[in-house]
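Consider what follows.

. . .
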Amino acid sequence: MSDRNAKIPFDEDNYTHNIHRNNERMLDRRGFMKTMVGAAGLFAISSLPWGAIAAKELMGLGEKEYPKKKIASLKSVAVGDSVDFSFPGEHDSALLIRLSENKFVAYQNACTHLRCPVFWKKEENEMICPCHHGKFSAHTGEPLAGPPRRPLPAIKVKVEYGNIYAVGVKRYEA
């Protein structure tokens, strides 16, 4: 038995007694756990601003204002006809339908199932998604048949001075 093993504690500050290589102790369990807790805390703190922005966006969606956009003139859309337009962005395609003399409805025309385009069928008085034979009510946007389970997102329309305008997006309520 050597004299070194008989000493308690050893002279060196190595509590594992079997580590002799440089930097080997930097990745022990305690150091690893401290690093993981620090990384998790840093991630949690860094995600707070994004969470606050997302919560603000979701809570204020119904009050969000969009710029008023002209869709068509009142004379150019006959009862039962539809007009394609984009709202609120240029890549958000939508569909305006004139159901009666004074009733207009507008919806995003991407099917809520797999986002295929939805078309107005005047003869059948309903909106159809040709991809999976989905059907939507023109009056409410609710799905009538096929795989879609959610209604089409509605767009608020307003008639002013002989023109039809898109003025907002109705908040989706499940």
About this structure: The chain is about 20% helix and 30% strand. The mean pLDDT is 85. Strands lie at 69-73, 82-86, 93-98, 104-108, 119-121, 126-129, 134-136, 143-145, 154-160, 163-169. The two ends are 77 Å apart (CA to CA).
